[in-house]
Design goal:
about 220 residues; four-stranded antiparallel sheet; 5 helices
Length: about 220
């Protein structure tokens, strides 16, 4: 896969999604468990990435963990900054995860294994509460987002080859449409354009597939 040919942070903001934030009482562990146990009717958002990869069958299967960390004051979401030398999504903010391997028993197993390998979070700290619909990336992956509640305390250890940094973002910030920006890149020579979400937080720039999956979590919790 080729590396990204444009800098999304240099693009102007087209619009703000602007939907009302998910209520705080819907971000508690009890409500999150109940929501995934009894999912509502809702519609995932179809992104430009999916349109660029219409053949979902040929996409490489992968899984990521969406780890919601339960702190006493407020829940956060654990994310990683990928190292700059990787072939896919180099330098980008992402959830811990990766492609399915032959020994994995399920999408959940892939997400737990990859999370332990990338950030050192042992599965004994992870309570899987459900999954979101598969997300197809422009780089040709069909990603299953596995949502989990993580109870501190726990130790983390970044894999230096894949992970440059581990950080947390308040879940309330990510589940607020006022923080969801739309930006567009026009490819050279008139070959098309790509529109995507961005969610800048402090010095971290969340965008692309990660932001797209967060939008689906947002829709799911608001439904």
């Amino acid at each position: 896969m080729s590396k990204l040919t444009f800098d999304p942070q240099q693009l102007s903001i087209d619009s703000i999604a602007g939907e009302a934030a998910v209520a705080a009482d819907r971000l508690t562990p009890a409500h999150l468990r109940l929501r995934f146990a009894n999912p509502p009717k809702w519609q995932p958002e179809i992104t430009d990435e999916h349109r660029l990869r219409p053949d979902i069958v040929s996409a490489v299967p992968a899984s990521v963990l969406i780890p919601i960390v339960v702190h006493e004051t407020k829940p956060t979401l654990l994310l990683t900054q990928r190292t700059a030398h990787l072939n896919d999504h180099a330098g980008q903010v992402s959830f811990p995860g990766g492609r399915v391997e032959a020994d994995d028993n399920s999408a959940v197993d892939t997400a737990l294994r990859e999370t332990e390998e990338e950030v050192g979070l042992h599965r004994r700290h992870v309570e899987v509460i459900g999954t979101l619909p598969d997300y197809v990336t422009a780089t040709g992956y069909r990603v299953t987002p596995v949502v989990a509640i993580v109870q501190p305390p726990f130790d983390l250890r970044a894999d230096p080859f894949e992970v440059a940094e581990i950080f947390e973002v308040p879940l309330s910030f990510l589940m607020d449409g006022a923080n969801h920006q739309r930006r567009t890149y026009d490819f050279p020579n008139g070959i098309g354009r790509r529109s995507f979400y961005t969610m800048p937080y402090e010095r971290f720039f969340i965008w692309g597939a990660t932001a797209g999956m967060l939008r689906n979590l947002f829709h799911f919790l608001r439904a």
